[in-house]
Amino acid sequence: MSASGGTKAIVAALAANLAIAVSKFVAFAFSGSSSMLAEGVHSLADSGNQALLLVGGKKAQREATPQHPFGYGRERYIYAFLVSIVLFSVGGMFAIYEGYEKIKHPHEIEHWYWPVGVLVFAIIAESFSFRTAIKESNPLRGDHSWTEFVRRAKAPELPVVLLEDLGALVGLILALGGVGIALLTGDGVWDGIGTVCIGVLLVLIALVLAAETKSLLLGESAGTDEVHKIETAIVDGDTVTRVIHMRTLHLGPEELLVAAKIAVRHDDTATEIATAIDAAEARIRQAVPIARVIYLEPDIYSETEAAKGPDPSATPGGPAQHPTGH
């Protein structure tokens, strides 16, 4: 996913959420519906989240410095993690609190046409935002399921927007159900129950986002396909005979660090080895363009050491490591 790959979806979600937030607060002012208040805060929090994603994307583009020699690519992960915190605290916990208060002190919904009209408008607007996020994600998702895409995507923006929009749509349906039942029964408790359900939903989504972005912050390896391409690109069958072991690490969504111990022939000269390493680096960058930081260490392959297994402390070690995903 490029730095701008999710920008269209983020901007679409930001515009939709700002318009929806205003309409929900107006509906709350006229109707007194706690579901409208919770949904208004939810949309306001989502708007702040999209702003955070845009700021993170901008900051991640800064050039590397002596203090941060690998650049600022992980800024995008940090801001995505902040989004999960905002969604949990401002969106989820507030909605649960507001719903609890409404259940304890229920009151009849006034001017029912305001919340119903706003919810219908919000569902339409969020559907367009969700459609944009799906359209932007499909080329990157490939043959993976949506669950795999959210779990394996190295760029956090589109998975965040997808989950937010999905949560918003489900939340709106819950709010419409709570308001509808409250109007039919004349019991405002149902409005509070709908609000609590919205809060629980937001908390669950926030926890999923936090878990996924935490994994990205800790540092993830390249995907299995990328690892295979890199291994294939390294070995030329002449000077570089095999990959002894290799580690990859995402420094950001579009910057990959590759560190590998490679086997060379014992009678090669230093010049031949240096030339082979330069050629291998060029092949790696051609095969996987995001592999921008590459360290290749030449060594003599040992069957005895390889028999010990893939132990990173063994020099030379065993076979190359393959990512297991997260």
Q: How do the strands and helices of this protein lay out in sequence?
A:
Blueprint: H1 7-31, H2 34-59, H3 75-104, H4 113-141, H5 146-152, H6 157-185, H7 189-218, H8 224-234, E1 240-252, E2 255-264, H9 270-287, E3 291-299, H10 303-306
Parallel strand pairs: 2-3
Antiparallel strand pairs: 1-2
Description:
The protein has 326 residues and is mostly helical. 64% of the residues lie in helices and 10% in strands. The chain is built from ten helices and three strands. The protein has a three-stranded mixed beta sheet. A hairpin with a 2-residue loop joins β1 and β2 (255-264). α1 (7-31) runs antiparallel to α2 (34-59), α2 (34-59) runs antiparallel to α6 and α8 packs antiparallel against α9 (270-287). The radius of gyration is 26 Å and the shape is elongated. Residues 1-5 and 314-321 have low confidence and may be disordered.
Write out key terms for the chains shown:
disordered N terminus; mainly alpha; 326 residues; 3-stranded mixed sheet; 10 helices
Quick recap:
The chain is mainly alpha-helical.
Order of strands, main sheet, comes to 1-2-3
pLDDT below 50 for ≥5 consecutive residues: which ranges?
Answer: 1-5, 314-321
Tertiary shape:
elongated
Q: What percentage of amino acids are in beta strands?
A: 5-15%
